[in-house]
């Protein structure tokens, strides 16, 4: 068995001592029942805003359902929710596959974001109805579906999102079986009954543990592949294919990278408030924030790399098609959203996260994560609102001849965006009332593999590597 020591700069950041296994199980399971008045108030507010958003979506469909140019902000919301709720569970698998010990306590929180994908599916429904068929008046518009049926984009985008949602739930459930067994043994009432039913006779045999890890690896791999596939579909079918002459091969990958960035930023925020408001300091060490900050910093740099790689092709191409694309997406109706999004999603987070003192703390990093999410939303608005503002009778042109005017959000759009984000947040918060926000068995595994020690003049965590 190998081991490694991770040193910390000062005594202030010394890792807390390990907690007894029985204390871990009892306190984390008890956290599902100890909902504060503030928690209940926030859930009620989010629920009311979510209902208002759904009602606004229905009213918008009744009032503007025949005009696709008015639905760009809903498309932006779909892409944003896919980035945050779809990208966050990647934190529950990628570092684990790399055998990172710091991520063990927070994999449950990351997997909980899969429940927010249900809102993404709901918001996609009117867009599927409004997306034009591939063939219009005998002409096949430019898309990735060369020989496919006319309604291939509509079918596959819905199937892809459903598969992403189901795979995320299976990933969540596969890793939660030992915790359902803990609920069966340490809780009462309906939680005990549901824990017994969902634990499926879990007692922790070697075969059960090997099967558990195999399922986590299998569903984690499937989830990653489906996420990349769905992000590709949304970016092409609901973005590029509705822009005349669009031919950006890098944008789908740029959207995928920003999805990972938004997912990590959401995890940072959720972990901060869970640790602070649910008194989980003894289980969530600062190592998790330090490691997430490095990951977030790397993804922030990757965003500007992929954007520049895409932008430079159009800038130096200078064809009529390239100029029209730049006029629509960069210099056109959403130029201020582009500037603000680039500043908030890249420049300010880069300037914040570049400092070691910031990455060693939590407050400034949470501020940077909030800024990234705002910039991510603005970047999605910049692209998808511009794309959907093109009338459908112009989609089949060789390139866009007339740049549409700026379409500002109306009351429906604002309420739908606020309601959609609120509804996704409410679903995630409600899941924490059913099962602990931190994985009991992975916290215990962390305690078995990590030990706080003195290192020279400071503190360190000695981490064992079981393989």
- Strand arrangement across the biggest beta sheet: 1-5-4
- Helical proportion, percent range: 55-70%
Summing up helix and strand content along with how strands pair, one would put the structural category as: mainly alpha
Q: List how many beta strands DSSP finds.
A: 5
In short:
The protein is mostly helical and 467 residues long.
Topology overview:
Blueprint: E1 2-7, H1 21-30, H2 37-64, H3 72-87, H4 94-97, H5 107-112, H6 117-130, E2 135-136, E3 139-140, H7 152-186, H8 189-199, H9 206-237, H10 251-277, H11 286-317, H12 320-329, H13 335-353, H14 356-359, H15 363-388, H16 411-431, H17 440-449, E4 450-455, E5 458-465
Structure description:
By secondary structure, this protein is mostly helical. The protein has a domain at 22-249 and 311-333 and 382-456. It is built from 17 helices and 5 strands. The protein has helices at 21-30, 37-64, 72-87, 94-97, 107-112, 117-130, 152-186, 189-199, 206-237, 251-277, 286-317, 320-329, 335-353, 356-359, 363-388, 411-431, 440-449; strands spanning 2-7, 135-136, 139-140, 450-455, 458-465. The termini are close together. Mean pLDDT is 87; it is low at 1-15.
Tags for this model:
single chain; 467 residues; mainly alpha; two-stranded antiparallel sheet; 5% strand; globular; disordered N terminus
């Amino acid at each position: 068995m190998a081991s490694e020591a991770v040193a910390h700069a000062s005594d202030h950041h010394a890792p807390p001592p390990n907690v007894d296994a029985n204390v871990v199980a009892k306190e984390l399971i008890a956290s599902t029942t100890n909902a504060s008045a503030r928690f209940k108030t926030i859930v009620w507010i989010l629920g009311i805003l979510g209902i208002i958003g759904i009602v606004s979506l229905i009213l918008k469909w009744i009032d503007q359902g025949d005009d696709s140019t008015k639905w760009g902000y809903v498309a932006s919301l779909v892409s944003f929710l896919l980035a945050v709720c779809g990208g966050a569970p990647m934190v529950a698998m990628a570092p684990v596959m790399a055998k990172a010990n710091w991520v063990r306590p927070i994999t449950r929180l990351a997997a909980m974001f899969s429940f927010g994908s249900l809102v993404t599916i709901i918001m996609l429904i009117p867009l599927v109805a409004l997306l034009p068929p591939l063939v219009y008046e005998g002409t096949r518009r430019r898309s990735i579906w060369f020989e496919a049926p006319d309604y291939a984009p509509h079918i596959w985008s819905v199937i892809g999102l459903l598969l992403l949602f189901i795979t995320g739930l299976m990933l969540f459930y596969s890793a939660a079986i030992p915790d359902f067994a803990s609920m069966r043994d340490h809780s009462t009432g309906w939680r005990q009954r549901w824990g017994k039913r969902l634990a499926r006779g879990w007692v922790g045999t070697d075969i059960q543990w090997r099967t558990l890890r195999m399922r986590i690896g299998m569903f984690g791999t499937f989830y990653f592949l489906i996420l990349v596939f769905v992000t590709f579909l949304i970016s092409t079918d609901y973005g590029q294919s509705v822009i005349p002459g669009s031919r950006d091969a890098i944008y789908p990958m740029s959207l995928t990278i920003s999805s990972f960035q938004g997912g990590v930023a959401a995890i940072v925020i959720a972990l901060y408030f869970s640790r602070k408001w649910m008194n989980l300091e003894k289980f969530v060490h600062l190592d998790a924030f330090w490691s997430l900050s490095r990951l977030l910093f790397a993804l922030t740099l990757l965003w500007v790399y992929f954007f520049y790689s895409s932008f430079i092709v159009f800038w130096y191409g200078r064809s009529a098609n390239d100029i029209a694309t730049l006029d629509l997406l960069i210099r056109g109706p959403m130029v201020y959203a582009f500037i603000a999004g680039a500043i908030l999603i890249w420049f300010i987070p880069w300037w914040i996260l570049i400092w070691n003192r910031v990455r060693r703390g939590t407050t400034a990093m949470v501020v940077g994560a909030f800024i990234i999410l705002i910039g991510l939303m603005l970047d999605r608005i910049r692209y998808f609102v511009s794309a959907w503002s093109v009338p459908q009778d112009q989609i089949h042109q060789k390139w866009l001849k007339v740049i549409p005017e700026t379409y500002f959000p109306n009351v429906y759009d604002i309420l739908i965006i606020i309601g959609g984000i609120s509804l996704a947040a409410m679903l995630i918060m409600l899941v924490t009332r059913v099962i602990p926000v931190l994985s009991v068995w992975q916290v215990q595994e962390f305690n078995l593999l990590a030990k706080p020690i003195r290192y020279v003049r400071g503190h360190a965590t000695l981490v064992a590597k079981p393989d």
